[in-house]
Amino acid sequence: MVSYEGPGLPRQRIPNSALSRLDDPAPGNAGTPAPGSAGISAGVPASMPVSEPRNLNALTLPRSDAPTNFLPGINYRCYEGGWHRLPNFDVLTPVKTGISPNFDLAVITRKEDVGLEFTGFVEAPTSGIYQFFVSSDDGSQLFLRENAPELSIIGSQHLPPPHRLAVGQIFSEVEEQSDWSEIEGEVTFLEQGSQATELELSSSGGHLRIRVVNSSDEPPVYLLHSRIRVAGICRASYTEQGQKVAGLLLVPSWQNIEVLNVAPELGSASKRVSIGE
């Protein structure tokens, strides 16, 4: 289930009336958002709801440059398979596709070993900060597509010493969640995507997602099951109990990762190295 809250809007399931899709978009592409709409994509197969605030502008119509081919409902693709974690749906072939009025599990082809991907648009009724929540039985992720910002470099500065964090660390509600941070743990999952490489860092405190943004090179073969120290920008998420925890670390490149102990199965290769070396 996907829910949201915003200015004057209590937390609630996103209503059918706020969801839409483009008329016959390209496969796997929700299209370009209309003013006041955010492209939304949800993959479902976390027992832990997650949330993230976003600033959305209210929809202002009529506009001559606004798309006019939006239709009710959102697109879905259904997949079958046995996965231990949320798969990369982009490389899989769906067994069923169609249109659903909402994020509805009724479209699944069977009760077990099945995954769903929904794509479409959500309309923001009022400008302001919105927070989205996702909950599912086994695992889920929510993505909001945005236009890339235009950036200009006006100067440079050395990075400050990183703030030390622990996997599963709990934040207070007023604590900064975008610090330059450093964390240690064992790499228990690794997947290279077209734009970034995703890792999962585990320790006795839980799990943390790592996203290496500038990672066009193949990840080192010795990284999986190795213990690493990694620096990046921390983003928070929320547990099912509503606790704010370290949920994602955005890492600029492999040079921000130091291998402390290589995986035991690799034997003698155990010295500390920076992956950028």
Structure description:
The chain is an all-beta fold. The chain has 2 domains: 2-59 and 67-145, no CATH class; 163-274, Beta Barrel (OB fold (Dihydrolipoamide Acetyltransferase, E2P)). The protein is 0% helix and 46% strand. Strands 3, 4, 6, 7, 8, 9 and 11 form a 7-stranded antiparallel beta sheet that branches. Strands 14-15-16-18-17 form a 5-stranded mixed β-barrel. The chain is globular, with a radius of gyration of 20 Å. The N and C termini lie far apart (44 Å). 26% of the residues are buried.
As for the number of domains, it is 2
Outline: globular
The helix tally amounts to: 0
Radius of gyration: 20 Å
Please give the share of residues in helix: under 10%
Low-confidence stretches: 25-37, 44-66
Largest sheet: 7 strands, antiparallel
